[in-house]
Structures are given as C-alpha cells and as structure tokens.
C-alpha cells in the first residue's frame, strides 16, 4: 500500500499489472477491498489502481475533514494527476459513481471509458436506515460500541441479495469499528447532499465517452429503474441487469460481474464499440 497526501488527508492506494490504466472507485460504506479480486484478475492485461477515499477504508478519517461528493471528486482529480494518468478507464460502484461523474462533468477530467455498477449517481438514493442516520448522526454516533457494530453489520448485510459469508461481512465492517471508525461511519452518511446528484443528472447529456451501466436486478437500496434512467440519460450508454444480485453485486454475482467487466474493458481498450457479453 502507498499513500498520497492531499490537503491534510492521507489517501491509501495501490497499483498492479501492466497495460491500459483501469481505476476502481468504491462507494459507501465500502472500501477498495470490494474491487480487489476484480483488479487482481485484470492485472495481467491492465494496470489496475485501487484507492480508498478520504474517510474510508485505510485512508485517514480525521473529523475536521469534509467527505462529501464535492471533496471526493476533487481528491480523485488530484490523485489521477499524482498518478499522471491521462484518460484511464474508470470502474465505479455506489458513491464512486457520483464521484467519478462529478470529476468528469465539473472538473473536466477525461476518461477512456466509464463502467458503473449499482451506483449512487442521480437522485433519489439512500436506504431507510441511511436516511435515519442522516437525520440523527450525532445521536447514533454515541451508541455503545456493541450496538454500533450490530447496526453496521445489519446494514451491510442488507445490501446483499444473498447472505454474506462471515469473513466478508467482518472485512466490510472492520473499518467502521473502534474509536476512529465509529464516528467516521456516521460522518460520511451525514455528509450526503443530494444536490450533487441533481447536478449530475442535469449534466448527463454532456458525457461524451463510452459508458456501461450494470445493475443487480434485486438491488433494494437503489432500484433497477434508477440505473435504467441513468443509462438512458447518457448518450450512447448501454445497460445490463444481473439476475440474482443485489447492491453488492461484487459478492452476489462475481462471475457475471467479472465477465461483463472484462468484456467491456477488452472492447473499449481496443477501440471497439462498448458492449458487455450477456
């Protein structure tokens, strides 16, 4: 793991492989861990980059640092410049969709292509628990650690259509536990501001690059109809639904996601029209 210091924050990142650059963006309450197996599988043909957004995973979680969509998009722009990447392929999940879209649409960061899986990108979004936390972040941040851990584990488990393995659930919950992780968990939800998603949707017609949207057909956090609306708003974008997968498509349908992602990247990196094998 390497780190990039940006505006007082420590951003954890890693790189592997060789070939065209592919950058993976995670969402909330996740980290780059979700994308690691897919990055490793692609590293024989691509140079893959993983990073944890400030406030997430192995990156710094200082209370004084904002973690909203706007800040994360600026951090992403700075990190791409640090890596000296010009037009990488970007793969995003959840919150990473809003971040990558804003970096492109507002800050003018160019991509070779954009692959979005069950993303938070346009309104509305947020589960009932997410909305509860947003309305009462200070109160919930003070619950006893054992209650907080139970809440986090239940929340994360609810994102999967299939029951998560205990090892996977523990890995996903770990960054949000302890004296640093517990308040950080509630801060990142409290920072949610839907106006960024409204701005994204208003600008979708300006996206001028190959885009594919993939969605778990059983996603109860963000319904498939939202993904279809997102794809319809982007000129030339394509859409695929994955049966038997919820919001955590990486763990619910890893084979289908891996096959679709490799098919997409192989075609667009060769300059062929973007299409995902079904």
TrEMBL record:
SUPFAM superfamilies, per the entry: alpha/beta-Hydrolases
Pfam family for this entry, one: Abhydrolase_6
InterPro entries on file: AB_hydrolase_1 (IPR000073), AB_hydrolase_fold (IPR029058), AB_hydrolase_sf (IPR050266)
Gene3D superfamilies in UniProt: alpha/beta hydrolase (3.40.50.1820)
One example GO MF annotation: hydrolase activity
Superkingdom of the source species: Bacteria
Stretches assigned to the AB hydrolase-1 domain: 22-259
Record bears the keyword Hydrolase: yes
Alphabetical keyword list: Hydrolase
Protein name (database record): Alpha/beta hydrolase
């Amino acid at each position: 793991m390497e780190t990039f210091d940006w505006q007082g924050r420590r951003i954890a990142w890693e790189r592997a492989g060789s070939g065209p650059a592919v950058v993976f963006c995670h969402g909330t309450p996740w980290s780059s861990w979700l994308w690691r197996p897919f990055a490793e599988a692609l590293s024989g043909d691509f140079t893959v980059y993983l990073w944890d957004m400030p406030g997430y995973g192995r990156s710094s979680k200082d209370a004084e640092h904002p973690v909203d969509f706007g800040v994360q998009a600026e951090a992403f722009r700075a990190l791409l410049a640090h890596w000296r990447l010009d037009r990488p392929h970007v793969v995003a999940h959840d919150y990473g969709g809003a971040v990558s879209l804003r970096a492109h649409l507002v800050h003018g960061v160019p991509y070779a292509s954009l692959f979005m899986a069950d993303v938070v990108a346009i309104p509305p979004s947020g589960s009932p628990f997410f909305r509860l936390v947003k309305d009462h972040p200070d109160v919930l941040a003070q619950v006893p650690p054992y209650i907080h851990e139970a809440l986090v584990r239940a929340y994360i488990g609810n994102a999967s259509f299939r029951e998560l393995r205990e090892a996977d659930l523990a890995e996903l919950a770990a960054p949000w536990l302890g004296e640093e992780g517990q308040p950080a968990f509630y801060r990142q939800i409290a920072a949610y501001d839907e106006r960024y998603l409204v701005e994204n949707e208003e600008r979708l017609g300006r996206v001028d690059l190959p885009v594919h949207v993939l969605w778990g057909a059983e996603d109860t956090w963000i319904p498939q109809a939202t993904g279809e609306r997102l794809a319809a708003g982007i000129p030339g974008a394509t859409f695929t639904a994955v049966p038997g997968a919820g919001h955590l498509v990486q763990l619910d349908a890893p084979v289908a996601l891996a096959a679709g992602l490799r098919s997409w990247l192989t075609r667009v990196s060769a300059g062929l029209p973007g299409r995902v094998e079904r």
